[in-house]
Write a structure and sequence with these properties.
Helices cover 61% and strands 2% of the residues. By secondary structure, it is an all-alpha fold. It has a single domain, classed as Lysozyme. A two-stranded antiparallel ribbon has the order 1-2.
Length: 160
């Protein structure tokens, strides 16, 4: 059983995006859809496809730090501030599984790095395209929309 969509959005995704200065309803909905598609909102946190809620692979995680965050020390410091003090140093990829806000920040930055305009919060096809481009190049649009229907139901459940 995963995390309820409303609680994930309210207590993890929204505060993380606000902390990063990146909050908008479109980004919040997209990350919720990605979490639904990648791990059924946390029902499957670890597997061959990657770590945590967003199933981010170790190589992608490392590349984001090396090629994106290293170029923006202020943003890197913000993201590092979300990570656990000692656990990050000994097992940085494990943070993607055990630290939901850190994982959310990394997932958002993988999306941001693509520089693709965000679709509206109710544009499931547009969000599915970004999910496929960023997280699942072999994924199908219908996989995203089916995960949304299964885990989230309607965009109205996002409102609080």
């Amino acid at each position: 059983m995963g995390i309820a969509a409303r609680e994930l959005s309210q207590y993890v995704i929204r505060p993380t995006l606000l902390y990063l200065g990146r909050h908008c309803a479109n980004a919040e909905a997209l990350l919720l859809g990605v979490a639904a598609s990648q791990s059924a909102l946390g029902s499957e946190l670890h597997g061959r496809r990657g770590h945590g809620l967003y199933r981010i692979g170790a190589l992608r995680h490392q590349a984001l730090w090396d090629r994106y965050l290293a170029l923006d020390p202020e943003l890197a410091s913000l993201v590092r501030g979300l990570a656990s003090q000692h656990a990050f140093l000994s097992g940085p990829h494990q943070e993607l599984t055990v630290n939901l806000r850190y994982a959310t920040a990394i997932a958002w930055l993988l999306i941001e790095q693509q520089k693709t305009p965000l679709p509206q919060a109710d544009d499931l096809i547009g969000m599915a395209r970004i999910w496929r481009q960023t997280f699942q190049p072999q994924g199908r649009i219908r996989d995203f929309t089916a995960a949304w229907a299964r885990c989230i139901t309607t965009p109205d459940r996002l409102a609080s």
